[in-house]
Amino acid sequence: MSNKNIQSLRGMKDIVNEESTLFTYFVDNASAIAKRYGFSYMETPILEETALFKRSVGESSDIVNKEMYNFIDKGEHEVCLRPEGTAGVVRHFVEKKLDRAGGTQRWYYYGPMFRYERPQKGRLREFHQFGCEVFGVDSVIEDANIIIMIKDILDFFEIGFKLQLNSLGDQNCMPQYKESLVQHLTDFKAELCEDCQVRIGTNPIRVLDCKNETCQAKLIDAPKITHNLCESCDSDFEKLKEILDFNGVEYEIDTNLVRGLDYYSKTAFEFVSNEIGAQSAIAGGGRYDRLVEFLGGRPTAGVGFAIGIERLLELVKMKETKEDIVYMGSLDEASLNTVLKAANSKRKTTKTLVEYTPRGFGKHFKLAEKVNANIVALIGEKELNEGTIYIKNIDSKEEYTLKLEEF
Ligand code: HAM
To answer: Given a cut of 90, is residue 68 above it in pLDDT?
Structure first.
């Protein structure tokens, strides 16, 4: 066996120190906002049947085609590490027959997702998403609601963004649009990139967001999706824009925004930042009114989004919230038990760190400084006999003793 040190896999990383502090800070505050919007937390397994993503994200998508971590497990099942969170949540919804229950479901989740992409800044093979999904609301008021909620989250962390918006139409207008797009593209087929030549046959609207310059040039005169919406999709899109205007949410229409997952219909959107490099999408989402049906349920409207946590953390700065940190120690062996007991009761309200080795005052103050404590609380022979505790407030430099019960 080789003695080579084992390292984390390419595109995967440990989240520790400042980043893990920021990570929990983000998740705690984003969760609090989601809860205020009526979402409750759910967790789905990281491993799912591969077929789940083939049927939802779509066989023609890059995610399913090129990027899935799929394998055959010991029971001969084709399984994969989830590349995104929506499909699992919909699987749960259908599996638990919630499509028959009626009413509305609002769930939020966060956790790791896996895509075998070429790693670069902002693009990992294991990354984390914070997402929300809503079922049973067939109205763009909900689309606006979740866009406003993402804005609330980004505003909380003081993150600047641009919102790009599009409507992809539905089963009435999308097929016709695809046909006219194919007609337009067929004339230039040979000039398109290899992927787009295939996409013409599998999912032509994916040509719209191809990054290849030649493909983009051929799209300048292509028919625009928003000019080809049926009456109901068109009026929904107008209504969505109206609500966003009324709520002061700025956006730009990007008729080439189709998103890399096949399940969207009508609203599609992306929040981008120009401060984090080429991988600029910090959140993406949209409406998926056919997805419950694709996975075997009764027709149920759905809409949701996911934020890429690692990309967002590049932009999150912690707000200064001064939290008390109490450092406790004993001046001799005999006092240690009393210190431990007092620390356990202090911890019910305050962050309390304990040094287990008895030490002199000077050493305790040095250690307290290292852990950024602002209150030092020590017990030695004198305090033990008197039933007191010595306190120093590091900020005000005040020193005093308290009865143990008062502490
Ligand atoms: P998505 O746009 O594929 O959508 O991913 C959402 C976000 O995850 C992206 O905007 C980006 O911030 C982050 N992300 C994606 N890939 C990577 C990567 N390789 N490395 C780092 N971050 C990444 C979805 O996944 C949909 N499920 C969103 C949704 C929920 N739509 C409706 N409901």
So the answer is: yes
